Amino acid sequence: MSDTNDCVIEVGEVIVPALNEQPAVKNDRAASNTLAEVSSFISEWTPFGLVTSYYVFSVCLYMYCSNGLIAIFWFIYMCTNFYIAGSTVLEAFFSITPCREARSIVDQAQEKSWLFPTAHNKLPVLDLIIVAYLPNEQSIIVDRAFYALEQLDYPTDKIRINIVYNTPTPMEPLETTLHRLPLRYAHARVIKVPNSTSKADNLNYFFTLETGSDIIAIYDCDHYPHPNAPRWAAERFMAEPDVDVVQGRCIVFNSDDTILTSMIAVEFDKIYAVSHPGRSTMWGFGLFCGSNGYWRSSLLRNLKMDDSMLTEDIDSALRAFSKGAKTVHDLNVTSYELAPTTIHAFWKQRLRWAQGWAQASMRHLKMVYNGVQDPVREEHAKRSFTARFGVLSLLLIRETSYYLVTQYTCLVLSFLIVKFPSSGADLWKLVYFQYPVSQWLFIVSVVCLVATLWITNQVKSEFVSRRMVILFSVLYPFYLILNATIGLYGHARQLVRYSSWNPTARK
């Protein structure tokens, strides 16, 4: 029995007639959709409301505090800023030795006409993975694939370039072009991951394949690895058998696009050429940072990626460290990547990083007090006091610093509202020299910042000019406040369990 208005639902090969949807069912579905939209709206905007309320409440609180309380808060914030600046400059000084060693190794290679120590037939087998999300990276994936296949200086019988991608909808003729690459290049492999919704899904699928590789390298799709990067990484593994992960230096190559990209380029030089190698030397451990990282295959296949984490790379790095794996930062293993060119893209990227770091910090802070779990090697079965304090600094103090920076900002804003200065001299005295002890704390903090930026200038990449370093130095206080606000926003998102994965826009 059928009506011309009835619809038909196919189930396998069986045709089942369906009755007209009743008005009550339609109303329930509409109500359900409306409720879902409202819930999504609340989830999206609640963090904004929380952060805005945090700023408004803090400024108002300081406006009504007594001078005695203000003095206490001021002293606390200046002391903590001094600690952060001091730790940063110590990391910078500790980075000088790794930088000199990296340059010395390059000089030695040049003197030997780039004849590397390990013979081609002795090199480890390398799987280099380029991870891509096609709707977002469709304009760059073919270019990066050809570059990796043609420009990397590594024996083709020892390396495989794996293009591992996902896409919610078919994309032709792009996918056909990609899948024809193995016909032209014997060391190419193209894998479309079924049912994937993230980078973690793509990588975990690849880890299920038996490829016989000794080392796995992971690159985001926007990267241009330096032609010698795989070779430098392989030589590091060959020279130091106890190394489990080699993290290279990432350099922003579109620094001239906008003021924002120039700021990010200097920031990346400060992070990858100064902070990471300095922290590794100072605290005794390094971190895989998501791209341009080389892993021993057995370790990475065992750990995999946790797709419930927004920054699955940091989580995997901390899980590796929790097992006693040794990660080193090699400044000769360089790769060039794109920085976001718009505030919107930057905001989305950093919010994902901030929430991901908050997740990872909560999960792994226990490493401060517990021992190595299932050590990778027996000699790494104990975690030193220095490493424990380094974890405390990296996870807890770094996350807390967002509140210290923003509270100091709110305190200064309250001064400007209640005691607005009538001249520049009054403003300078009000902001920085409200209390005598703050003069010394402020001056020492500035000296630490200048020293850090001076060291960064010494190791800046070819895409960063001295003008960019000066601009970064001038704008750094505002950039620091912006990043601290993003950190708070990440915490607020984690509080409301915001879980959308927003890939970084590429051009």
TrEMBL record:
Chain segments annotated as transmembrane = 54-77, 402-420, 440-457, 469-492
Entry-linked InterPro entries: Glyco_trans_2-like (IPR001173), Glycosyltr_2/OpgH_subfam (IPR050321), Nucleotide-diphossugar_trans (IPR029044)
Look up the record and report any one GO term of the cellular component aspect: membrane
User: What are the UniProt keywords, alphabetically?
Assistant: Glycosyltransferase, Membrane, Transferase, Transmembrane, Transmembrane helix
Query: Origin organism of this chain?
Result: Decorospora gaudefroyi
Subcellular compartments: Membrane
Q: Which Pfam families match?
A: Glyco_trans_2_3 (PF13632)
First-listed, main subcellular location of the protein, grouped into a coarse class: membrane
Name of this protein: N-acetylglucosaminyltransferas-like protein
User: What GO molecular functions are on record for this protein?
Assistant: glycosyltransferase activity
- Residues covered by the Glycosyltransferase 2-like domain: 215-454
Q: Does the keyword Glycosyltransferase apply?
A: yes
Q: How does it sit in the membrane?
A: Multi-pass membrane protein
Reply yes or no: does the keyword Oxidoreductase apply: no
Alphabetical list of SUPFAM superfamilies matching this protein? Nucleotide-diphospho-sugar transferases
Q: Which domain of life is it from?
A: Eukaryota
